[in-house]
Each structure stands twice: as structure tokens, then as C-alpha cells.
Specification:
By secondary structure, the protein is α+β, with helices and mostly antiparallel strands. The chain has a single domain, classed as Aminopeptidase. It has four helices and eight strands, in the order E-E-H-H-E-E-E-H-E-H-E-E. The protein has an eight-stranded mixed β-sheet, with helices on both faces. The mean pLDDT is 90.
Length: 179
């Protein structure tokens, strides 16, 4: 994937590119902020620092794809990724799970749609057949994005997260990638 500039609906420009091992600090800072401003995450609120070596290895592995959107070239404002489930498995090696996380001030600016397009393009390049994820049922904005991008809701997982004294459901979503 080539580095590219992307103009948001509000006129701001972000740089989008694959994450590299050298992006550890930017990713750590992003996760710290995102995990405290959103309940639509699987990150731990106030999460301790993620292991630097493990993060660097994740970004560099061929069977992963981590894409970042950077403000001013250094502040990470969104991460989109997929991981191939079992890359060497003869039957199930063409499925990948994905996730997109975007800071609140960058939501509804067209960035999620563009990042989803880039993830799908990368997944197709790796000969993936199916891309899937989960989304909190309360996250209407993300659900609308995924449906607009051609995903379908495969099922509902009841009471998967206990947040602020209340149980929340999640949808399982997926898309078959055509050639």
C-alpha cells in the first residue's frame, strides 16, 4: 500500500499508510485516548501500555494489515486492521477479522469509509474470501458504515459487554469479497 493524503469532509488532510514498528508511541497514545473516549472498543479503558516488541511484530507480520491515519504526519487518529485467522490452514486460511477505531473528532468525516475500502483492497490482494468483525449493537454510526460498505449482519451475541452497569449486545458482521 502506498502512502496517501486523504481530505476529510471538514477539509482537514490526514496521511494514510501502513503502520510500522517505529509507530509504537503513536499507536500507544492513540489507544490510550480511544479507550477512554469510547465504549465501542475491545481495548481496556485506561489500558496499560501494550508490549512494544509484540506491537512491532504485529505491524510487521505478513498475515496482518495495520493501516493508520495520521494528523500532521505524527498523531495517529484512526487505526484499521485485519488479521488472517489461520494463514496456513488449508480450509480456513482465507478468512480475516477486522476492526476500525477512530477518535471521536474524526468520525463522520468519510475516513471510516475510506479505511474500509483500503482494508478490503488489501484483503483481496492477500486472496481473502471473507472479512468479518463484531460491532456493539448500540454503535449505530459504525453499523451504518458497515452496511453501506456491503457487510451483512450474521447474528447477535447477547450481553457481551457490561459497561456502566448495563449489558450490551454485539452484532457479528461479515462480507464475502468478490474478485
Amino acid at each position: 500500500m502506498q502512502e496517501e493524503k486523504f481530505t476529510l469532509k471538514n477539509g482537514k488532510v490526514v496521511t494514510i499508510r501502513r503502520l510500522r514498528a517505529t509507530d509504537y508511541e503513536a499507536a500507544r497514545d492513540f489507544i490510550r485516548q480511544f479507550s477512554t473516549e469510547s465504549i465501542f472498543t475491545h481495548q481496556y479503558p485506561g489500558q496499560p501500555d501494550i508490549d512494544r516488541k509484540k506491537s512491532e511484530e504485529l505491524y510487521e507480520r505478513e498475515d496482518n494489515c495495520f493501516i493508520g491515519a495520521f494528523e500532521n504526519g505524527d498523531r495517529l487518529v484512526s487505526i484499521a486492521n485485519f488479521r488472517i485467522d489461520r494463514p496456513n490452514h488449508p480450509w480456513a486460511g482465507r478468512n480475516c477479522g477486522f476492526g476500525i477505531s477512530t477518535l471521536e473528532e474524526y468520525c463522520s468525516q468519510g475516513l471510516g469509509t475510506h479505511l474500509m475500502y483500503l482494508l478490503e483492497k488489501e484483503a483481496r490482494a492477500k486472496n481473502m474470501h471473507r472479512i468479518y468483525g463484531s460491532v456493539r449493537a448500540l454503535n449505530r454510526r459504525a453499523i451504518a458504515l458497515y452496511l453501506k460498505c456491503g457487510f451483512q449482519i450474521d447474528g447477535l451475541f447477547k450481553e457481551t459487554a457490561f459497561i456502566n452497569g448495563e449489558w450490551h449486545d454485539e452484532y457479528h458482521i461479515s462480507k464475502i469479497l468478490e474478485k
